[in-house]
Amino acid sequence: MVKKKSELSPQEKRIPASALFTTPITEKQRRELKRLAAKPDSQIDYSDAPEVFPTAVSIEVGRFYRPIKQLISIRVDADVLNWFRSRGGKYQTYINEVLRREMLGQPRGR
What we know:
The chain has 110 residues and is an all-alpha fold.
C-alpha cells in the first residue's frame, strides 16, 4: 500500500509569525531578562552553546533562503540538453544545482 505524502515525512509544526513576534512577554519573563542582562558576561555559562558561525556552504538553500532567479538565454550543446531532459522533469532546476556545485567547488577569482 502506498503511503500518503503527508505520512512519508512529518511536517514541521508551523507557528504563525504573529504568535512569535507579537505575543507580549509576561512580567516574570521580563524580570528574568533584566536579571540576566545585569549579569557580567564572565558569569554566563556558555558551555552548552557551541560557538558556530554558518559558512556560505552550510546555508541550506531552499529552506529559508531562496536566491533570486534571473531569466537568461544560454546556448548548450543539443546532446547535453537532451541528457538533462532525460533525467525527468525540472531539468532546469537540476542544471542550476550542477552549476551551483561547480561554483562552490572552485576558488573565487578564477
